[in-house]
Every structure is written in structure tokens, then in C-alpha cells.
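Please go through the protein record below and explain what the C-alpha cells say about the fold. Record follows.
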Amino acid sequence: MKVLVINGPNMNMLGRRDPAIYGYMTLADIEARVRQRAKELGVEVGIFQSNSEGDIIDFLQSTAPLASGIIINPGALTHYGLSLREALVDTGIPVVEVHLSNIYAREPWRGTSVVAPVARGQISGLGPRGYIAALEFLAAIAGESR
């Protein structure tokens, strides 16, 4: 089983970007935790980050056919990334949307996600633990379908 872990715009700035909201962990720290848990679960992960919606879509189109699930933190694309939303739908595989902060407890515009309606679930506000929860969920549902 393979799970894609995708991070959108500005996620590469974690650890320096508003630590009061996003914490001090870097994206590399989060990726290391995901890789470790994936290894424990016997899951292969493909990890990708881009500040460009087009690059994320290209990654999805080229790698999703070999994957069983997607974990995505779309960053700002959460609110307006309609072409990303369509690319996620086109994969035909389960998607879990993840946000480090609770997007519903912040500015009102952050509470609108164009990805959530096409995702199997959304995890918001659990910090880096949200990625692990999403990975465990995807591994569990893949095991149930065998």
C-alpha cells in the first residue's frame, strides 16, 4: 500500500512561519514522523510539497495511479484551489485533508474548504499528529477492503 502525502503553499516555511499558530516543527520533522509511522504500519509513502498548484496537480496525475490514499494539507489552496479539487476527485482514491491549526477557530475565510466536500475526512487543529491520524485511517480502510 502506498499513501501520498502532499503539502501546499508555504508549508515549506514551517518552523519559521508564525510558530504561535503552526509550532516549531519543520516540514522535514513532520515528514520524518510520517515516514517512521508508515514504516511501522508497513505503508509506503510518497511525499511532495510545492508552492504551485500546477506542480501539485502534475504530481497527483503521475503518482496517484500507484497509490491507495492521499493525505493533503493544501495550505491556502484549501480555500480556492478548484483545479486541485478536481484533480483529487479524478484520482478516485480516498483523500484526507489535514491542517495543523484549527481553521474554524481562525479568520472566517479560513473555514471554507473547497477540498473538504471531496475528501473522505478532514483533520484540523491537531498539529503534526493530524498527519499520523490520517495515515493510520488510510491504512485501516485499505486493510478493511482486502
Q: What stands out?
A: The mean pLDDT is 95. The first strand starts at residue 2 and ends at 7. The chain has one domain: 2-144.
